[in-house]
Amino acid sequence: MILSIIIPSYNAQKNINACLHSIEKQKDDQLEVIVVDCSPHDQVMMICNQYNFVKYIKVEKRFNPGEGRNIGAKLSVSDYLVFIDSDVVLANNAIINIRDSIYSGKEVFGAALEINKTINDSFSGRVEHYYFNHESQSSRQIKKRNNLSSAFMIIKKELFLKFNGFSDIPRMQDTELTERLAESGIDLYFVPDIIGYQIQDSPIKSVLNKIKITGNNLFFIRYSKKINTKFKRLYFSLLLPLMMIAKITRINFRNIRYSFSFSMLFIYSPFMYVCGFYWMLGFYRALFISDGIATGR
Fold first, then answer.
1. Is 163 helix (H, G, I), strand (E, B) or coil?
2. Domains in the chain: ranges and CATH
3. Residue 137: pLDDT above 80?
4. Of 85, 188, 281, 291, which one has the fewest beta carbons inside 10 Å?
5. φ, ψ for residue 55 (rounded to 5)?
């Protein structure tokens, strides 16, 4: 069974070498690697050229990550697509565990994303990880999910093409696609024994802005067709603080349960409510300004 690992790249020269090296250590003849790059320079290309198994695709115009993944998927020759971000380093047994999950009958599943503490262990890095990847801890069990992260996601190619791949939006392409799949009756799984170590190195201002954008975009992806009158929007706006508290409390409960530390309890868990406030600001913006999915990254 051929697997295609597809990596979208924009200015990924800082991290992609570690990503490719982690793949090289467990590569076999049934694995192809496609890097789709839209960087305004040749640095990523020169790194990729050091690995003779990498198929490097250069795109002159900058694309959203989902579109880069779509390009790679169409050029692949595999049965299954493995989407990873350029800053993800695969654990040594990741490819074997991916194959085991496929042989068990899973068609769409996501992996565990752990923070790469050896490269970045900053406050903002942990905040971003704990907010976005709060269900990724490897001590959890396999379970069905309603959506998955494309930072490390596996899907049957035939199914991916049938659903026309990722939508061309700057953020939350993975949420939009996987919720589409779930609504169509496709089972999505979280498989925690497939692990990738992700670098989170954005400054805290950028992390909070990213969270605000996800709040805005979530409205248009999940709720806009249902909340389509002024009365419904007003009613929903009154419920939103309770939704935010429930969302962040759930994140904190899972983080404390699976990654307990005193800093988690007394620093990061309280700060998650600050993140929730920014998420709520983005959601309110969508409710009352309603100018569509945010174009910012």
1. coil
2. 3-198 (3.90.550.10), 204-288 (no CATH)
3. no
4. 291
5. -95, 110
